[in-house]
Write a structure and sequence with these properties.
Oligomer: single chain
Largest sheet: 6 strands, antiparallel
Helix content: 25-40%
Shape: globular
Number of helices: 12
Radius of gyration: 25 Å
């Protein structure tokens, strides 16, 4: 089934999504111009060595010190993001400079997870300078193909080793050779920077979100790559050109003056990411509760009554839920321990079938997932490797109203929704638009210049008036078009820019 990639840029933010038939599969947000943490290589300084924890804390220039285990994780051989590296003894002391790579973003009160095992990831390959052999993704099963790939890589005589990712299965010799040399050159470029590097310096970082999305997600199944931001479009075409004409020809500039995600019917799915309740097509639903320790998912029949007996109704509800759970954890980028409370089933064969359904559905996930089975309580535990923050962290912020653990929409996401509404109003032919909004959001827009680029680029012949309201809830706003010769506006109204 054809899939599309969607990339938008807004107010210093990159938004990238993967969708299949108007259903989101992945959704990511990242500040434009910021250095991606996971995958970056830093010159660090050891701040503390804790023998009792068998770990060290390393200053890499981030808000919190990173965590480095004495038993430097390499995650075994054969995963798409691992390498067979000989275990090195931990011989560092406080104050030592140390070269480290981020393998997991900070989360909650935890700092970035670090490793001294370095790697450089591409579409087909991962180059591991310290690896002692080439290894294959477990999803490459053909021994004949493994032999072909091994022959291509070994002929290059590049020191170290390569991880042959799932995408390398069937890849041409030219593509593999080109990428191998490219990754090796990245490593050599980094080596040049080491002598002059100071603690906290970034010696290597992966590309921005759009570039990484192209690298990690693109397959022959991708039909189009829609990009609505001119600068990101140029950057992505430059990167796509290095990957061949097939990829380049699929990068399309979305020049319609409407909200791209709304145009393709994806906005409602994005909004749904902020809700812990997920409705299923049958009338059943999931409840997803995230904590720092784990994520709990509860399956409920809701209004789904089925057409057979109770056992069959429960069984089919759980099967449907298993598929959606796999999609939701990928879409929300939920990592760590995940506990699923399926509806109780009496028959063992039904229990096994649900676990198998979940296991199969998780195979489409790029992150490594391990299903541990169903226990006597009917709970299914599985783990999902997580490298980066959940996208939801940029869509909401801590609620100032409840003074508890609640959350409201972030300022940036509210402005993004206002922008989408303005695009719709002007697409209807209006020359002027009136935005009624919370006073805090108004000042945020004016101070940050959040809509300035759109005003100068696509709304130069339009007029936008903003009307602040002290009593409006943080998230509430209205946008309406008006072509009246004389607008009836309150004194507090201001023209935008």
């Amino acid at each position: 089934m054809a899939k599309n990639i969607y990339v938008d840029g807004f107010c210093g933010t990159i938004i990238a999504a993967l969708a299949d038939d108007k259903r989101l599969l992945e959704y990511h947000i990242e500040k434009y111009g910021t250095v991606a943490i996971t995958g970056s290589i830093y010159m660090g300084r050891v701040e503390n060595v804790l023998d009792g924890m068998e770990a060290a804390f390393v200053d890499v220039g981030l808000e919190k010190n990173g965590y480095l285990s004495f038993f430097d994780p390499t995650y075994g051989c054969g995963d798409d993001d691992s390498a067979c590296v000989e275990q090195k003894p931990f011989e560092y002391k406080k104050g030592d400079k140390i070269l480290v790579q981020a393998i997991k973003d900070p989360f909650g009160n935890k700092g970035v997870r670090l490793s001294t095992t370095l790697s450089f990831a591409g579409r087909f390959l991962v180059y591991a300078p310290e690896a002692v052999e080439n290894v294959f993704s477990r999803k490459i099963e053909s021994e004949k193909e493994k032999k072909r790939l091994e022959g291509i890589i070994s002929s290059l005589k590049i020191p170290g080793g390569f991880i042959l990712r799932t995408a390398s299965d069937g890849a041409s010799k030219g593509d593999l050779v080109s990428e191998a040399k490219y990754l090796y050159n990245l490593y050599k470029d980094m080596l040049v920077k080491i002598p002059s590097a100071k603690p906290g310096d970034v010696l290597y970082s992966e590309g921005n979100l759009a570039v990484r999305m192209l690298r990690d997600v693109y397959t022959s199944e991708i039909e189009k790559i829609y990009v609505s931001d001119e600068q990101i479009y140029k950057d992505l075409r430059e990167n796509a050109a290095k990957r061949g004409a097939e990829v380049l020809n699929k990068v399309v500039y979305f020049d319609k003056r409407v909200d791209m995600f709304g145009y393709f019917g994806l906005s409602d799915e994005v909004d749904a990411l902020l809700r812990n309740k997920v409705d299923l097509s049958s009338g059943a639903y999931l409840v997803i509760d995230r904590t720092e320790a784990l994520t709990a998912i509860d399956v409920n029949t809701g209004s789904f009554t089925g057409s057979g007996n109770l056992e069959e109704t429960v069984f089919h509800t759980n099967l449907l839920a298993a598929k959606e759970i796999a999609r939701q954890v990928r879409l929300r980028n939920i990592g760590g321990i995940i506990i699923v409370d399926f509806i109780n089933m009496d028959m063992q064969e039904h229990r096994d079938a649900v676990v198998n359904e979940l296991t199969e559905a998780l195979k489409a996930d790029r992150a490594k997932c391990t299903v541990l089975g169903m226990n006597q309580l009917g709970l299914v535990e599985f783990t999902r490797k997580k490298k980066r923050k959940e996208s939801i962290s940029l869509l909401e912020k801590k609620c100032p109203y409840c003074q508890g653990d609640g959350a409201i929409l972030s300022n940036d996401y509210i402005v993004l929704k206002i922008r989408a509404a303005l695009l719709d109003v002007f697409a209807d032919g209006y020359k002027s638009a009136i935005v009624d909004l919370n006073i805090e959001i108004m000042f945020y827009i004016l101070q940050r210049g959040s809509l300035r680029k759109d005003v100068s680029r696509i709304w130069a012949d339009k007029r936008i008036y903003i009307v602040p309201h002290k009593t409006y809830h943080h998230e509430f706003f209205t946008v309406r078009g008006d072509d009246s010769v004389v607008l009836d506006l309150p004194d507090k109204a201001r023209i935008l820019y």
